[in-house]
Amino acid sequence: MGIIRVNRPAADRNAFEAAWGYVTSIAKGMQLTMKIMLKQLLKLEKSETLEWPEQPATYSERFKGKHFLTQREDGQVRCTACFLCATACPAECIFIEAGEHPDHRIEKYPVRFEIDILRCVFCGLCEEACPVDAIRLGPEYVMAGSAGDKWVYTKEYLLARPQLQGGIASIKVENDKHPAINKIASVENNKSVVRH
Ligand code: SF4
Ligand code: SF4
User: Fold this and answer.
1) Within a domain: residue 164?
2) Count of the separate structural domains present in the chain
3) What does each C-alpha distance from 49 to 60, 65, 120, 174 come to in angstroms?
4) In this structure, is residue 75 part of a structural domain?
5) What is the Å distance from ligand 2's center to 5 Cα?
6) Distance 33 CA to ligand 1 centre (A)
7) Statement to judge: residues 87 and 140 lie in one domain
8) CB distance 93 to ligand 1 below 6 Å
9) Fewer CB atoms near the end CB (10 Å): N or C, the chain?
10) What pLDDT digit, counting tens, does each position of 135-154 carry?
């Protein structure tokens, strides 16, 4: 791609013109501000300012806020500790410790699943990378806090904090995109067919 050359902006011819331009710009801005303020004071125009927190903001349903982990039908964490989200995360803020699942049909599950939310850039790549709809970014946007607050979200918090009202089931069919489970299920079905 070639270099684009741009012309220098015209320099002010003298200090008076520079000062005049400065003053008129300020005056125009103040005029607009006063116009809007008077309209709103006289109730001729609705104010867009919200009285937070009494008036919460309404965001799009597609807003990508606080993360949560989805649940299986039996309420267990849906995540299979495949590490795809942690690998995709550009901020390297997802920590997963995998463990063997007691159910032989499920290979692994996260013993620990943590997100260091202060490092997260809310890019949504973890959600995109997950093959089983186990992690999503939800519509919660309130994350204010102070030093000493817990900024590392644990598996328990991601799975069932009060705002999630008991947790959210995955939209995927239970065995969808679980090739290992589907394979075991088909082997077990075949065995039962042979036995009969
Ligand atoms: S939203 Fe982006 S930065 Fe945040 S945890 Fe997911 S992948 Fe990492
Ligand atoms: S949340 Fe999804 S991508 Fe991340 S480890 Fe769990 S199953 Fe894998």
Assistant:
1) yes
2) 2
3) 18, 21, 28, 44
4) yes
5) 48
6) 39
7) yes
8) yes
9) N
10) 999 888 888 888 777 899 99
Is the same domain home to 36 and 89? no
Going by their DSSP bridges, the two strands 152-153 and 108-116 should be labelled as antiparallel
Q: Identify the residue with better confidence: 75 or 92.
A: 92
Q: Indicate whether 184 belongs to any domain.
A: no
Six-digit token pair at 104?
A: 């032989």
Specify the residue with its C-alpha closest to ligand 2, atom 4. 85
pLDDT single digits (tens) 44-72: 988 888 888 898 888 888 889 999 999 98
The tokens of 80 are what?
Answer: 């299979």
pTM assigned to the model = 0.69
Mean model confidence pLDDT for the chain:
84
Which carries the bigger pLDDT value, residue 78 or residue 192? 78
Round to whole Å and give the CA distance between 69 and 88. Answer: 17
